[in-house]
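Example: DUF58 domain-containing protein.
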Amino acid sequence: MKKLSELFYTNLFLTGRLFLALACSVVFFLFSFFFPWLGDLPEFFFWGLVLLTFIDLLMLYRVKDAMFAKRHAPERLSNSDDNELGIYIENRYSFSVSVGIIDEIPVQFQKRDVWFKTSLKAGEHKLISYLLRPLKRGEYVFGSIRVFVRSPLGLVSRRFNFGQAETLPVYPSFLQMRKYELMAISNRLTEIGIKKIRRLGHSLEFEQIKNYVPGDDYRNINWKASARQGSLMTNSYTDEKSQQVYCVIDKSRAMKMPFEGLSLLDYAINASLVLSNVALLKEDKAGLITIAEKVGSVIPADKKHTQINKILEILYKEKTRYLETNMEALYSTIRNVVKQRSLIVFFTNYESLPALQRQLPFLKRISRFHLLLVVFFENTELKQVSEQPANDVEQIYIKTIAEKFAYDKKLIVKELAAHGIQSILSTPQNLTINTINRYLELKAKQRI
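Written out as structure tokens, the predicted fold is:
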């Protein structure tokens, strides 16, 4: 008796078609009082409806495991990217069914409309794909898959529950990293905004002797090799390798500001991951330092194949903190860990000139020993406010304040340049492209 009640309260649902038929039956009974010629027709209609409902129940419940569903998900999700997931559904009934599917996605997405409708013939199976875009790193818990099945009669619906809670980690944007990696391998980086930078002069790293083609520097012609081969041969040089590139990520409260659902820290983490991978592809050494009120994680620069996975695992766990950056601790760490001249890419954020001036003495010290590149963010929200026309005194005041903050950002760039410190002022959306462009530019100019 208990199992029967559970069946009706948890797995059996009456459809709109059945309620409509019941409403028609009630109307027929009411009309029979005013139109005696209807006779026993309303009663026949009612009992016919009861019989059809019983047949529908029998069709849906006579097979125990009549449906099968399973979620197809990757081992981990990529933050800020569209991740493809799928639901495999299989009909084991001997007739066609109409199916409604609910996938209980994690609460972080705040979506209640992950509902799919389809139809399946007898023995048919389908894979339903959909996309999810997480905006925060961490663990995401998926619930069960609820499948609601209706027979061709469509009077009642049976619910099937599949799967148990499944936890997927959301890592920094490794899909973006792979995209840049594939573009770099196929020499198509210009398609996504990476500039093709002309190398000034050449490094001392000799690569090979190759046949001369129009456009090669005639100063690199190898006359001895040309005499042996009977055709012009030229020396080919490559960029210097094994140079150290450190990404230093500020985790203080300045990086907690959100833009389009992502915090500035997440933008910096995604850009650091891509930059480290590009540096490794260029056969440079990539390293990582995180800093807040104290030093966080430190990964010494290396170019082993496992280095990018180490960086990815560390970045997965990083979170913003609520205190200011301890620049003295950062300077000491760089002096102790980074033993040779390196490119230090410092991801941080300054909203005012005094905020920079508090850190400037330590930045100047770091720049004495290394090539320092300070990367901070343009406030796109304030930019939109400053570009809107002002219609009253209050809007004029707000627009003036927004323009002052935007002007302070430009002053910060000039102040850093006055002390010989490279800088990038970028919108969060273009951070990755702008950082890679500057890295390739500095490498082409042999500044590292």
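Residues 89 and 126 are 5 Å apart (CA to CA).
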